[in-house]
Fold this protein.
Amino acid sequence: MKRGMWKQLTGVAVVLALLVGAISCSPGSDSGPTVLVPKDQAGSIRVRLVFGAGSAYDPGDKEGLAHFTANALKRGTEQHSRAEIDNTLDQLAAKLTIDVGREVTIIEGLCLTESWSEFSNLFFSVVTEPSFDVNEMSTLVQDQLDDIEQIRRDDQRLAKAALQYYIYQDHPYGHPPEGMTQTVRTLSARDARSFYREHYTNGNYTLGLAGDISDTLAEHIHAVLDASLRDGAPTPPSLPEPQINKTQVYLIEKENRAQAQLRFGRPIDITRDDPDFMPLFVVNSYLGRHRESMGKLYQEIRAIRGLSYGAYSYAEHFEQDGWSNLARPGLPRRQQYFSAWVYPKSINANFVVHIVMKMLNDLRTEGITRQQLDAAREFEINHFPFEIETPRRLLGMRMDELAYDTPAFIDSFTTRAAAVTVDDANRAIERAIDPQAMVIVAVVSDGEQFAKTLLGDQVMFEYPSGVDPSGLKLRDQPYLNYTLPIEAGNIRVVKAEEMFQ
C-alpha cells in the first residue's frame, strides 16, 4: 500500500451507517463520506473507532507502548474508575473492546438502542479523557508482561509471532503488539499520556457505525470527538522493505514437544490495492485456504497422509475471526507477507517440511493449471458472501476499503475473481512464492537434532494407523528426494524463553 493511500485511513473519518436498503454512497458531513449498507440487528448500535496508533508506532525503546496505552483507556477515566466502567457495561449488557494491530488500534462498542445515551457517555469518556492512574498503570505493566509470557507458552501463538519477528527484523512490524519484556517493564503512565496525546487526535481516526442510527448520530459523534481530541495527525512510521534473500530457519526449543509447529513465510509487496492481489488470493484457495479441505497442502499432508491436523496458506496477514474459518476484517497493513502453517507430530516434521517446500517450489516453477484455477475461482466466488454475511464483518471490510484505497473491493469482488487468468495467477505466484528465499520457524523439542535432520540425507517419518504406506511409496518419493534449499549457516536455534525479551 502506498503511503498516500494510507493517509485515507489516518486523515479521513468515514461513517458507515448501516440502514435498510441496498449498498450505496451518499455525501457525508465535513468529517468524511457516508457509506450506506444493509441494517444491523434491530435494537442495537455498534460504534467502531479506528486510530492510526498500532504497534508500528511504538518508539524504538518503548516496544509495547501502543498496546499499553490502548488498554489503559479502560482502566479509568476522569469520570469513571475501572470498576465503574466494568459495572456500567454489565448493567447495560454492553460491550467495549480494544484491539491493537501493527498499524491500528480499534475501539469498538455495542449496546442496546435504549442504552445509547448512557453508553455513549461512557464510551466518549474512555476515548477522550483517560486518567492513566499510576496505580492502574503498574498493574497493567504486569498484565502485559503476562501476555508476553502467554505467547511463549502457547506453541501456535509463539510460532506465528516468531515468524513475523524474523521476517520483519529491525522493522516496526517485528515485535508483537504486546511488546518486548525489557521495554514493557519501563512503561509508565507518563509514557501512555505522551503516546495518547500524539496519536489519539481528531485527524487520526476513522468512524464506523451500524444499527439503529439516526441521520444526526454520526454528526453528533464527530462533533464530540473533534471538540475533545487534540488537533492534528501523526505521520505514519516509514517501513523499510524486508530483505529475505536466502531461506533462513529458526528452531525454537521447548521441551517435550509431541507436536511441532511449522510456519513458512516471506514478505511480499502485494497488498489489496495491487492488481496482483486478486490473482494471489484465488491461487491461495487452490494452495491452502484456512480450515478448508480443498487446498493442495491439506490434501497432500492431512487427507492423504494424516500427518497433521491442518495445513493452510495465507495471501496476507491472518487473524482468525473467533471460531470461524474467516479472517478478521479491520486490521489493514501497508506491508504484507505470504505464509503457510502446518503442525505435524514431531517425528514427521522433517518430512512435512520437505512436502511443503517442494509443493511451493513446484507451484513456482510449474505454475497453476487452468483446471486448478477454475476450481479455486469458483470456490472464492461462492464463498465470498460469507465474508460479508454479518453487519459487523461488512462494517470492518468497508473500513478496509478506505484504508487500502479500494472503494469497490466488495462490490467488484466476484467480477474481478472471475476475470483472473492463468497468466495473472502465475505472475502473482512468481512475485509472492519463492522457497529459495523464505523464513521457516519450527517449535521443536531439540533444535540441534532437528537441524541435523533437515540437513541430512535420511527423512524419517511414520504414518498413523489407518494409512497404508505401501500405497504411497511412489507418491512420497519426489518429496523424499527433494533437496531442501537450506544451508547449515542459515539455521539458528533459539530457546523459547529467550523470545521477545
Notes: The longest strand covers residues 336-344. The chain has 18 helices and 13 strands.
